[in-house]
Amino acid sequence: MSSKILCGPCGYEDNIKHAKKWCTNCEEGFCEDCEKVHRSTKMSRNHTLISVSDYQKIKDFDISQTCVGHGKRYDLYCSVHDKPLCLDCVDQHKSCSQLVSLDAVSANAKQSTALADLEDTINGALQNVGKFIKNQETSGNEFDKQESLIKNTIQLTREKLNQHLDLLEHNLIQDLSTKTFNCKSAYGKVIHQLNLADKKLSQLKEEMETMKQMASDVQVFLGTREINKTIGEEIKSIKGIINSTKNFEIKIEIDSSITSLLDCVNRLGIISVEERNFEFEFKDVKLDQAQKQLSIPARSSRRIVDLQLKCKVVIKRERLKSCVSGCLILPSGNIIIADFLRKRQMIEYGGQGQYVRAISCSGQPYYLTLIDSDRIAVTYFSKNFMEIINLTTTQVQKIATTHECCGIAYDDGKLFVVEKQKGIVEYDLSGKISNKLAIDTTNVMCIATTKDRIYYTKQQNNTIHCVSLRGDGIWQYQNELILAPRGVAVDDDLGVFVVGYESNNLSIMKSNEPNEQGIDILLKRTDGLIKPRAICYNKDRKELLVCNEGDGNAAVYNVILG
After folding, report:
1. How many Å is the Cα radius of gyration of the chain?
2. Is residue 192 classed as helix, strand or coil in its secondary structure?
């Protein structure tokens, strides 16, 4: 099909001429001569004429100015029905009070709010799609990391199984050697005794033969009785040896747990894919506002309606007592526990509470924060430094501090560290100090941050604090519902999780000036909270980890939002 536009008036006269201009009002092309006539005619002199090349860019747009039902040009616009009308359509809109001229309502359409909103909508949609694509690419890369971690877990499990089986084999063979030696020693002892008896009998036989040949009858008579007496005693001794001799048969019975493992266990583990609804929020901009404003009620924030127990974790102890001061939920679903009574080790557990590995560190680990899927930051009990540890490569970046560090939190490329006698210090990931908040950090151990706020607890005076990133106080809360507050975490909607060490509970409070009506008790002692000390909330997985000091155990909960 030709891309040339022909002149409409010339075509009516059966003349074929190529158009130079296009009238957007008449929806017709004009050659140079007809254009002059069109511009000079009173009814069309105010029409909009554009070049044919510009028209080529918009000709495929399905924008008709002619009524489909009546075949006539649109002249009016009904704002009630948001519909253009021709003169024959008016009968169907007699009751509509807002019929206006289409020319009037479309005046300055290029500068209208509707067009600007449409542009914003398209740009917003492009941004959303771009973010979604980036998110999916990130998720794909994250899946590779999860696959690598699972492979490492499988290999580590296999190595531990091999080591344990090697140890069992060594112990069993050692036991076999001991028992074989004891049995052979018993046989050797009997053989030795019988050899002595054989020698004695042979000697008596020689004496009897000699006596028979050389001695007199009297000597033979008397000697026979002596030898007979000696033979009797020797035979009695031999019978005693034979009667007390044991026969041994060495056997093996494989432990039933091992045979059960061989018969019943057909796999080393189970690979599962946890499928969740994608929680990417498509952020709409204003749309469809060409003719009238719509009142859209604001969406209320989601709130936590329930906690669903996912798994329990029995924390391995180095001593009789454990003191979990920090914990994390990794993007993979695994968790890390920091027990500051355990020197130079943190423990990683799987998503179902199974032991995975010990992670080496430089001291008594105190508080943890997640930087990304590979890195965590750690503070140490009574140490003037913190470390960034790569969980995959085990590389460690040590950052010196001027005072002892306690709580630590990460947000938007910054580490916020509680330093005793100094305040809350903000570091970048290279270890450079970027800000200092002059806050009384006496008895401040736990900290959390999100967006533009920092939250921390003071156990001694039962208070929870919220300050800005400049250190300005926003609110402070104290109530007998939460006694000796320790661990603190924040959810997506700035709800603040706090555990009460003495009240044995987990609460969530609204971030804006909390009060008794704005606090919900989510878990109590009857739910298994015994001296709860450390908590962590993973916003992406919607999972909450709570660790007890009282019984040294922990639990992971799925957070149900409503």
Report:
1. 46
2. helix
d(CA 206, CA 214): 12
Q: What is the rounded CA–CA span in Å between residue 464 and residue 444?
A: 10
Distance CA 201, CA 242 (A): 16
Threshold 0.85, pTM exceeds = no
Q: What angle do CA 399, 414, 475 make, to 5 degrees?
A: 120
Minimal CA–CA distance to 506: which of 473, 467, 479, 533? 533
Q: Is the distance from CB of 336 to CB of 352 less than 8 angstroms?
A: no
Distance separating alpha carbons of residues 118 and 128, to the nearest angstrom: 15
Main-chain dihedrals φ then ψ at residue 322, nearest 5 degrees? -120, 160
From 173, 164, 156, select the one nearest 269 (Cα to Cα): 156
User: Taking Cα atoms as reference points, which of 416, 441, 439, 446 lies closest to residue 428?
Assistant: 416
Closest by CA to 64, choosing from 56, 51, 55, 73, is 73
Tokens of 528: 């298994």
Tokens of 560: 């149900």
Q: Hunting for tokens 């929870």 — which residue is that?
A: 464
**Residues linked to residue 49 through DSSP beta bridges, in sequence order:** 23
The structure tokens listed for 510 are 């609204």
The two structure tokens encoding residue 519: 């606090």
Over the chain (562 residues), the average pLDDT of each successive run of 10 is: 79 89 88 91 88 82 77 84 87 82 78 75 84 82 83 87 89 89 90 90 88 86 88 89 87 79 66 60 49 34 72 79 89 92 89 91 93 94 92 93 92 92 92 91 90 89 90 87 92 85 90 69 91 93 91 87 64
d(CA 74, CA 65): 6
State the Cα–Cα distance between residues 312 and 530, nearest whole angstrom: 14
Contacts of residue 257, defined as CB under 8 A and 6 or more positions apart, other chains included, come to none
Q: In sequence order, what DSSP letters do the residues of 451-504 get, joined into one string?
A: TTEEEEEETTTTEEEEEETT--EEEEEE-TTS-SEEEEEE-TTS-EEEEETTTT
